[in-house]
Design brief:
The chain has 334 residues and is of the alpha/beta class. The strands form 5 sheets. The chain has a 5-stranded parallel β-sheet. A hairpin with a 6-residue loop joins strand 4 and strand 5.
Length: 334
């Protein structure tokens, strides 16, 4: 995804990483709002000699067992992967894994070595070498169904990870830990946990506002009338802006609108009770506090028709295309 004006977010995250680790940071927002792209730019602009990054994109991994998690987190010494090419210039960033000897990897897989102790040992080594470790987990909620193997019982791995993260940040001040997710109900569960809420910070990366979107489109050479049309119909969704700038703006928006209309229509055709939620959303009513409607809200959030902000406890349309399509459907035109 192309990187555009995120000066406020860039400055906030740079300042955050340059302070002593003291909290687990959750970066959340609508799907494709640019969370990963933003953090990659932060990594590029900070002094590379000051930080050691451990970045895990769980969207790209098949995570089904505890063993597959270990294979993701730990690699044999000497292993280093290259990933993520930025659009602006051919710039590559190295993201390390936790490196162990072959024998240590075998002992971890057999349960003879504690993986958390080994991770802490490596992070302490990074600090002694003058670097601030930064652990980044993209879509960590994929580990919700993974359990930590134990001779006596099975415990949810994600709970153990959070306990470990709190210790790394709030207790030991050893490493930054950043969790990025578009699953806002996952964030809600975290936020409702009093222990995690008091040891964590939450940062929303949203779509561009209208002023920023207009500036982007005009700087990219789009005529003002076309830019205003894009903003009115879709707002500042980064991937939509890319689509618009690569083709005929009005044709692109019209095609996306038809797809959006079809998507909402299919959802409400199969579930007529969802129309009531759309009516309330169009009116701008707060749907969060009505427990009897919450399952319906969740269904539309999962279908990416609505976006739910658990910190502000507000529900809105995923973007303006969905709002326009919902209004048309509610008028009975489809």
């Amino acid at each position: 995804m192309k990187f555009w004006d995120r000066e406020r977010e860039l400055n906030w995250l740079k300042r955050y990483l340059q302070t002593e680790p003291n909290a687990l940071l959750f970066i959340y927002g609508p799907k494709s709002s640019g969370k990963s792209t933003l953090l990659q730019r932060v990594v590029e602009e900070l002094p590379k000699s000051d930080f050691k990054y451990y970045w895990y994109d769980l969207r790209e991994e098949a995570i089904t067992t505890y063993s597959s998690v270990l294979n993701l987190f730990f690699k044999e010494k000497g292993w280093l992967r290259r990933m993520l090419e930025f659009v602006s210039g051919v710039v590559r960033v190295n993201y390390g894994a936790f490196e162990l000897s072959g024998g240590e990897l075998i002992r971890i897989s057999k349960g003879e070595l504690n993986p958390f102790s080994e991770m802490r040992r490596i992070l302490e080594k990074d600090r002694k070498e003058g670097m601030i470790p930064v652990l980044v987990f993209d879509e960590l909620q994929k580990l919700k169904e993974i359990y930590l193997n134990s001779p006596n019982n099975q415990r949810p791995l994600i709970n153990e990870l959070f306990n470990f993260f709190v210790r790394l940040t709030k207790v030991l001040h050893l490493s930054h830990v950043i969790v990025m997710t578009s699953d806002t109900f996952f964030i809600e569960r975290v936020y409702s946990d009093s222990t995690l809420e008091s040891t964590s910070r939450f940062y929303l990366v949203d779509f561009f506002d209208d002023k920023t979107t207009l500036k982007i489109l005009l700087e990219e050479g789009l005529p003002e009338k076309d830019a205003e049309y894009v903003i009115e119909m879709a707002g500042g969704v980064p991937w939509i802006l890319e689509e618009v700038l690569e083709g005929n703006p009005r044709e692109v928006i019209e095609e996306l609108y038809e797809l959006t209309l079809s998507r909402i229509y299919e959802s409400t055709r199969k579930r007529r009770d969802l129309k009531e939620i759309l009516k309330r959303a169009v009116k701008g009513e707060n749907l969060y506090y009505e427990e009897e409607k919450l399952d319906l809200v969740k269904e539309l959030v999962e279908k990416e028709v609505l976006f739910y902000d658990p910190i502000g406890r507000a529900v809105r349309f995923q973007n303006r295309l969905y709002e326009h399509a919902a209004r048309e459907i509610l008028k009975g035109k489809n």
